[in-house]
Amino acid sequence: VLFRSTEEAKRAEYLSTLNTESDRLHRLIDNVLDYARLENRPLKADRQAVIVTDLLRQLQDTWQDRCAADGRELVVMSTLPPEKTILTDPQLLQQIVGNLIDNSRKYARDAADRRIWLWAKPEGESRVVFEVEDRGPGIAPRERKSVFRPFRRGETADTTAGGAGLGLALARQWAAALGGRLGYRPADGGV
Known about the structure:
alpha+beta; three-stranded mixed sheet
């Protein structure tokens, strides 16, 4: 009986690893296909009125378990009124924020602080800023522009994290299609 429970534990561990890696491969393939589509034709966003709290809840539902599987905690914070709506393409915005959360999971893997924050903050009267923050090593100043180019990763990036260097390039193009911008800044009080 002891042998069987050890075997079942190994099987569960293998299935968990297989699930994690197939999820990573799926996102990689999607990014490559999305990039190829953007090269061939401009993106048309399907804008609609979205309540920001609903969008944050969907993002949390999608990413909380994935973060927990990596030993991370996804903390979702908003300084917006609960009824705040924005005109955006919700699926595209989820892809942008998802790519940023995924980067935090991969590249802040060894951070002592295991939290990843997703912030929604007002900017002026009509704009909303979404920020993904972690306590990873950050991006070297000389690489802060190049990491947004296709097939580029920071020179000091953990090569075991995987990816093709398309996530930030896609996210930046998607943000532009929504009338927004995507950038990098060191976190307040840390890297």
